[in-house]
Specification:
This protein is α+β, with helices and mostly antiparallel strands. 54% of the residues lie in helices and 8% in strands. Strand 1, helix 1 and strand 2 form a beta-alpha-beta unit.
């Protein structure tokens, strides 16, 4: 049985989305980010973060790496057949973390997450400006294709969309990037994403 450690309102949502796409059984350990440094959880993820995954004795951390592993092992059409497209899945997943996540998450923190007294509108505005370059890269890469690798949704789309979805909550304007906006809507309207947002099927 697969066990996922984390709560929905954390990076664990990305892995919940993947598990729902795959339709495989799993259970939840509801560990909030604030509780991830307990001695018990540090045995699972010594970095003191969520999510983490246990699968047949294997322990993995890092949300997007977990998703790449799950797609590779359990497939269901989310893992491409060609080595070239698998390379693109790695490329886009790493890109999402290194280029897209920081500016979007900074804007989200200073517009929504932090208490009002700790928010800085200038920091949020600068973060949104910093997000424009990666959003432009993504807009150009999509071109006339519905998904990053072509006509089919893959783990590349799931991983990048899970990061890009911060934009709406962070009040980042996607109007200058219409292809990104359309693609993101297609991704987050998938039934598996909506299922991942709900209460866990099994929690311990």
């Amino acid at each position: 049985m697969i066990t996922l450690y984390g709560i929905t309102r954390s990076r664990a949502l990305r892995c919940l989305w993947m598990l729902e796409e795959l339709g495989i059984p799993y259970q939840r350990k509801l560990v909030a980010p604030a509780d991830a440094r307990t001695p018990e959880h540090l045995k699972v993820n010594p970095n003191g973060h969520v999510p983490a995954l246990k699968d047949d004795g294997l322990i993995l951390w890092e949300s997007l790496a977990i998703n790449l592993y799950l797609a590779d092992k359990y497939g269901k059409g989310l893992w491409p057949a060609s080595v070239e497209d698998r390379g693109r899945c790695y490329q886009w997943s790493i890109w999402a973390m290194t280029e897209m996540e920081t500016p979007l998450l900074t804007a989200l923190r200073h517009r929504v997450i932090y208490p009002e007294a700790e928010r800085d509108a200038n920091v949020a505005r600068e973060a949104e400006e910093n997000a424009r370059m990666p959003l432009g890269v993504l807009d150009g890469a999509l071109g006339n294709r519905p998904y990053l690798l072509g006509s089919a949704f893959s783990v590349a789309d799931l991983n990048v969309a899970s990061v890009t979805s911060y934009a709406s909550r962070a009040k980042v304007d996607l109007k200058p990037f219409p292809k990104v906006a359309d693609w993101l809507t297609r991704c987050i309207e998938r039934p598996a994403y909506k299922a991942a947002l709900k209460e866990p099927r099994t929690a311990a």
